[in-house]
Amino acid sequence: MAEQTVSINKIYNGAINAANGGYICGLMASLLDSMGMDKGDAEVRINASFPVETPLQPVMTEDGGIEMYLNDKLLGSIRPAVLELDIPTPPDVETARRASENFIFLHSIDAKGCYVCSPIRTPDKGLRLFIGPLDNIARRSVGENLVAALWRPTQNLAISNPTVNKATIENIYVWSVLDCPGVYSLKLRYPESGVLVLGSCTASIKRPLPVDQNYIVSAWQIAPADGPKLYMGVAIHSIDGELMACAKQVCFDIGSSLPPV
To answer: Where are the beta strands (DSSP E) in the chain?
Structure first.
């Protein structure tokens, strides 16, 4: 794999000229799966911004993972993992719908906005996940859901899945959805915080997500902040309350400016 290169299309941006953190994680997971090395949970660590429209070099590691490089610079890595996460009961459909209606667009640094949560994008160019605060967000405790969204993925995100005999969302997009809600939960609860960037994400896709159905997405704080280090959980449930996917994340408050690309 050392000779292979991958390039991230600019449509998958978060900040200007940089890939969305969740999409990065999904890309790394897809590379791990394509090698047949693991089909379970995985942990992605992001060391630096992944530039878009730029050849990047994935390299296999001795412990069954992959590292991604830009020339000699390590951008990130993925390794098989086992996710352990306490998940609060998801909001009901109407609560999630109301939260989405109270969506506050935070990731608007790029003119077209983040691939995951921009309302400016059309469904063929973005996931349109509109995350809003739950009632009394400032007074909610660690372990309680802080934000939610009612999300309906579209057919362009799907692949044919013979295992369940229906079209399901490609995993790279499931990983993408598991990014922004965690950051929104912290930014809306702590509006005085600076720029929050994803440092690591350990995720578990429990079952395939059929397309053209509604899903409840929620996020919560896992533990108190440790200086600039912040911890959160994200989950995707069916409208019947079945857990479809979840993630444990670490974010960093890096102050007032974005990291260089």
So the answer is: 42-46, 57-60, 66-70, 73-80, 132-133, 145-151, 158-161, 166-169, 196-205, 215-226, 229-238, 243-253
Do residues 19 and 128 share a domain? no
> What is the mean pLDDT of each successive set of 10 residues along the chain, which is 261 residues long?
80 88 95 73 95 95 92 96 96 97 78 87 94 93 96 91 81 95 89 84 95 95 89 96 97 72 57
User: Do residues 24 and 137 both lie within one domain?
Assistant: no
**Which DSSP helix (H) or strand (E) runs through 85?**
none
Distance of CA 96 to the CA centre of its chain: 18
Pair (73, 141) in one structural domain? no
Residues 142 and 46 occupy one common structural domain: no
CA-nearest of 205, 180, 25 to 113 is: 180
Residue 4 inside a domain? The answer is: no
Tokens representing 153 are 């993925």
For the entire predicted model, the pTM comes to 0.92
